[in-house]
Amino acid sequence: MSQSPRATTRPSPLAFARDVLTPAGPPVPLLGRARSRFVRSLPYVITGAFAVVLLGTTATVLSENYGLPSDLAFTFALLQAVPLLFAVRRPLLVWAIVFPADIAAAAALLALPMRGEQPWPWPPMAIFGMLLLMLLIGLRERRRTLVAVWTLTALASLVFQFVSPERSSLISVTTLVLGAVVLTVGGALRERGDARRALAEQETISEAERARRTLLEERTRIARELHDVVAHHMSVITVQADSAPYRLTGLPAEAEGEFASIAATARESLTEMRRLLGVLRSEDASGGEPGGVERAPQPGVERIPQLVEATVRAGLPVRLSMPDPLPEAVPQTVDLSAYRITQEALANVVRHAPGAATRVSVSVDPDRGSLMVLVVNTAPENDSPPLETSGTGHGLVGMRERVRLVGGTLDTGPLPDGGFRVAARLPFTTEEEPPTA
User: Fold this and answer.
1) 292 contact partners, CB below 8 Å, separation of at least 6
2) Which residues, 6+ apart, have CB-to-CB distance to 119 below 8 Å?
3) C-alpha span between 76 and 55 (Å, rounded)
4) Three-state DSSP class for 411?
5) What pLDDT, on a 0 to 100 scale, did the predictor assign at position 16?
6) In Å, how far are 73, 79, 141, 256, 264 from 97, measured between CA atoms?
7) In whole numbers, what is the pLDDT of the chain averaged over residues?
8) CATH 1.20.58.480 fits 301-427, yes or no
9) How do the domains of the chain map onto residue ranges?
10) Higher-confidence position of 293 and 275
11) Could you tell me which residues come within 8 angstroms of residue 291 by beta carbon, excluding any fewer than 6 positions away?
12) Which of 16, 17, 171, 418 could form a disulfide with 379 if both were Cys (CB 3.0 to 4.6 A apart)?
């Protein structure tokens, strides 16, 4: 069985020409993205000045130096100069108007006798207009469009030189060389600008992805710790349900069966939770145990004094203020969040303000039913440089997520004297969100 070769379709010459001579993008003004208004208006000023100067000089040169009738000379001057006013937005369209006008003017001059060594086929004013348009096209269009513009200019020059070989070809060669240089420089500047914009966009995307990844990592870490809290409660439910028939005498068979069902459901839920949350734990979290289940209990408010003591040993003067005895009705999620927020706040002081006097305050607001955590540091008194000059933002992200988890509020920011303040309110019960319309 023979297999026919894959058919290849080639665009028609008309379609290729249409693609080459189609603008690369929307008519955005040159330097339109600049912040300065003066910079944005500069291309308009330059093209406007060229249009005004070329309008008068082209009509005068074509009429007096080349002997073209004044009405025809003024018509060519209008076609070659006035479209330059729109070249800032649509240089390729303007070139499609001006270049045929240049060819028509050269053809009209071909019918006239030569007057000395006048430049031909392109008068000096036409050359200036061509070079300006080539520069604007180079700054806006694709490489193949630049090649097409230069090729058409070269073909027109060769045709006129072939029709009238007795005239000097120096101007044509000079125009082609200068045009190639201008197009090359303009194209290089455009590609460099495109590369810088693409790099800036990529950096913006990378920064957004980095922030998103940081947020996900913090949420994963909080989920791992929250698993221990929930697992504890589920274990208590299981033990209470299993031991109920032994602790409570005289239970009917239906009640014992109900307690057994509750215990079985709690054990199943606990197993599923461990299986689901196991993928969130690192493999080395427990020294290589399968599933990475951590056996150490999660810290709480009662361990904040040990945290402060370790920070003082590290060289940071810290004063601690907290109630004694500690409140007993603090939920485990609030207990853990208060410890982690204090830990991260002290770590930030050590990294960014070594030696700064720091105050840690933990208090209970009975009226609002919440736990208040406050960490305030002054500006460092010594001249020791900070361990880090720019943070990653992981700490503040983690604090916000922990506060959001319990429905609390977080207030962070610099102080007028150069210090920093972290204040968190952690309610004992999750506050319900207001209904949305």
Assistant:
1) 278, 281, 282, 283, 284, 285, 286
2) 127, 168, 171
3) 9
4) strand
5) 60
6) 16, 7, 17, 95, 85
7) 80
8) no
9) 13-168, 212-282, 301-427
10) 275
11) 274, 278, 281
12) 418
The first and second tokens of residue 223, run together, are 């989920």
Question: CA of 2: how far to CAs of 5, 6, 78, 259, 331, in Å?
Answer: 9, 12, 64, 76, 77
How is residue 224 written in tokens?
């791992």
Residue 181, pLDDT > 90, answer yes
Residue 378 has pLDDT above 60, yes or no: yes
Q: What would the pLDDT profile of 14-27 be if each residue is shown by its tens digit?
A: 666 666 667 777 77
C-alpha distances in Å from residue 364, one per residue of 30, 212, 323, 334: 62, 34, 8, 12
| CA angle (407, 413, 419) in 5-degree steps | 135
Angle at alpha carbon of residue 60, lines to 58 and 62, rounded to 5°: 65
Within its chain, how far is the Cα of 417 from the centroid?
33
CA distance 326 to 349: 25
**Taking the model in full, what pTM does it have?**
0.50
What angle, rounded to 10 degrees, do the helices at 37-60 and 124-138 form?
150
Q: Which of 65, 99, 74, 64 is nearest to 84 (CA)?
A: 99
CA distances from 131 to 2, 96, 119, 136, 248 (A): 57, 14, 16, 9, 100
Sheet containing 370-377, strands listed edge to edge, beginning at the edge strand earlier in sequence = 318-321, 358-365, 370-377, 420-427, 409-414
Q: The tokens of 192 are what?
A: 């460099």
Q: Read off the pLDDT band of 1 (50, 70, 90).
A: very low
Residue 182, exposed/middle/buried by CB under 10 A (0-12, 13-18, 19+)? buried
* Residue indicated by tokens 């028609």: 12
Find the radius of gyration of the CA atoms of the chain: 40
CA angle 138, 142, 144 (to 5 degrees): 105
| Cis upstream peptide for 386 (omega within 30°) | no
